[in-house]
Amino acid sequence: MNKADVQHLIDYMYWVNHRLLDAAEQLSPDELTAPTSVTMRDLRATLVHELDVEWSWRLNLQGRLTDADEDLRPEDYPDAAAIREYWSRDEAEMRAWLDGLTDEDIGAPVHSDLSDDDRPLWTYLLHIVFHATQQQADAATLRTLAGRSPGEIGYLEMARELNSRP
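Above: the chain sequence. Below: its structure as tokens.
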């Protein structure tokens, strides 16, 4: 696994996140927090949970996560626009960090306080992407059940969209 491969997978993760946020911004706060028996969390809580995982794991891998860093709380984000604002900042920080890494950095072992082990950095970055895939599927399901599907979120849809740009 090299830096370009990891960045490409991170690009896909953010592409899906943007589509889900676009769809979520069409909802009222009540619709965003509607109870569900289909997934573990309502849509707002699902999106905030995914944001929290991306944020906390990045800090963890940078050796910057502290006991003072608390889990993000869904109630602190009244609507999808508030979630997008925080997520946009976090995405910029993730991309800036990744831009500064080399292929050697991606393959080097890193200690994770969250899992209390040492693995090559790329394995933790894949964990972030694969965790996102699960949460994104839950969010897409909730959107679809509410009659407002985010559309196709598969990898090939992103590849087609990117290839069709001038």
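The chain has a mean pLDDT of 95.
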